[in-house]
Amino acid sequence: MLKKEITGGPRGRVIIMDSITKVTPQDAGTYVVSASHGGASSGEFALEVPLTAAFFNDAGVGKDGAGIAALAMLQERGVAGGTVSHTSARIGDAQDTWEHGVISHVNENACALGIVPGRRLNEVLLQLVGS
User: Which domain of life is it from (predicted)?
Assistant: First the structure.
């Protein structure tokens, strides 16, 4: 299962992981790109560590927004969050998410950082960390 620091700069580091279950205290303060769905269970894992931002796959959004439920959870705790479209990146494949993911949904904290739907996630994060 893939987990690696993909880039870093003067304003932070980006770590990609196939599953948000692999987040650890050493990831605190980073931008995490997870290939997990953005449901409530993923939100719980992401909130175990104080991250700068967490990104997931929208998994097609699902019934009652179940595939993006983590975004509201992150917002409540002051963490930026977003998803990439399930049509742009494979669920469970962090490398594909990094290379091809297009932002589909964001919370208000992410908007405040300039992260908006329709942009390539990797381009936005490279700009944010100053790579």
Answer: Bacteria
Model confidence at 3: pLDDT above 90 = yes
Is the pTM here over 0.90, yes or no?
A: yes
Q: How far apart are CA 95 and CA 105, in angstroms?
A: 20
* 47 backbone dihedrals φ, ψ, rounded to 5°: -80, -5
64 SS3 class:
helix
Compute the distance between CA of residue 130 and CA of residue 87 in angstroms, rounded to an integer: 28
Distance CA 108, CA 116 (A): 10
d(CA 100, CA 120) in angstroms, rounded, equals 7
Looking up tokens 């990831």 gives 27
Who's near 25: CB < 8 A, 6+ residues apart? 49
* End-to-end alpha carbon distance in the chain: 25
CA distance 100 to 10: 24
Question: 28-40 pLDDT, tens per residue?
Answer: 999 999 999 999 9
d(CA 17, CA 71): 18
